[in-house]
Structures are given as C-alpha cells and as structure tokens.
Amino acid sequence: NAGVTQTPKFRVLKTGQSMTLLCAQDMNHEYMYWYRQDPGMGLRLIHYSVGEGTTAKGEVPDGYNVSRLKKQNFLLGLESAAPSQTSVYFCASSYRNPGTDTQYFGPGTRLTVL
Amino acid sequence: QQQVKQSPQSLIVQKGGISIINCAYENTAFDYFPWYQQFPGKGPALLIAIRPDVSEKKEGRFTISFNKSAKQFSSHIMDSQPGDSATYFCAATNSGYALNFGKGTSLLVTP
Fold it and tell me: Which residues of A touch B43 (CB under 8 A)?
C-alpha cells in the first residue's frame, strides 16, 4: 500500500494564480482532511470530508475549496493564491472518525506564493 | 482559539535524558488524546495515544500521563536518543470529525 500520497511535492505560484493539490489514499478510508502547517502554529484544519461526495469547512477554510468526487481522492483548490497561503499542506485520512481510528498523513506539499 | 495548549515550544535534551512535553485542554468532552511525531520533510505519524479512563500508558521509551481533574496530559521520552529529534504534537478530540492539535514542540537531543 502506498498509504496517503500528495501531488505535487513543491510548487511556486505568483499572486493571483490558481492551482489544485491532489491527495490520494489506497486504504479505503472514509474520512479525509486537508491541513496547513505554519511555523509556530501547529496543524490547522482547512477542510475535511466524511465520505465520497461530502465536504465541510474546518478551522481556516477561507481562500480554499475542496472536492471529493471519488472516495480515494481529495482535492484542495486555491482559486486566487495569496502570499498568506504560503505554507506546507498536509493531507490525512482515517477509516472512521479520528477518535476511533488512526489518522494517517501524507508527505506534504510545500507551496510558496510570491 | 487554540483548544490544546502545548509547551514548551522547543526543548534541548542530552542523550540519555528525559524529554517532557506538556499539554492542557479546556473541553471536557475530549475523550481521545494522541501524540504525533514529525521528522523534517515528513508528515506527522501517530506515536501513542491515551483515553481518560487510563492515567498512564507506556510504549517502549514513550509514556503518556493523563490528569483528568487538571485537564492536562504529558509525554515523557525516557533515555532520549538523537534519533528522537523531531517535532512532537499533542492532540485531542471528542470522537468528532477532526483532531485539535497543539502548536508543537521541537525536540533536539544532543549527543
């Protein structure tokens, strides 16, 4: 099993550009998450999904959109990138809610917005 | 607001010493408290977790202690090794949709 994979690993954008980050998991997990990690801020939840076709806002959703058209994939979109979105983005998944099952993280995507 | 408060922000321990990281929470509905370990350039990985019905849990050199009345929990890494150098996150959840993470502790174990 590959576990949780993220594409791309690195990306540099100019302000105003758009992009999509792809997360894929091969563990048949129902729950998927997008976090951002900034120095001294820990991991903050952007959006999450509790099953195919569902999405919901987390702690810091502004400026991001998500889609979960297939159970194994969770896409994070930035429609108009801003320097404040420079961060490391982590995708995670779990079979059920994280109080019951382990949350597995991907390797991260380092995004720089100039 | 930050639902889980973690300290210290950074920690330097000599090889063989004990690394201690503390976390506190306010939400009494939290019922699951995992610890994650993150090496540079990698995603976090679950290290150990505890539930409120247990006051202490040990796995190898890693121990979690839980104080329900004080709403605090802490991790101890015994006989710390340079390979333990990483960022550690405590977290909490009420079995809801997501984990609430602390801000992390950067641990450096010197030879």
Answer: 4, 90, 92, 105-108
CA dist B68 and B66 (Å) reads: 6
**Residue A97's closest chain B neighbor by CA?**
B97
Going by C-alpha positions, the residue among A93, A106, A111 that lies closest to residue A49 is A93
Q: What are the per-10-residue average pLDDT scores of chain A (114 residues)?
A: 93 97 96 94 94 94 97 97 97 88 94 97
Q: Does A102 touch chain B (CB under 8 A)?
A: yes
Question: SS3 for B84?
Answer: helix
Q: What rounded mean pLDDT belongs to chain B?
A: 94
For A50, which of B46, B95, B97 is closest by C-beta distance?
B97
pLDDT digits (tens, 9 = 90+) for B30-61: 999 999 999 999 999 999 999 888 899 999 99
Chain A residue numbers with beta carbons less than 8 Å from the beta carbon of B102 are 42
Residues B84 and B109: beta-carbon distance below 8 Å:
yes
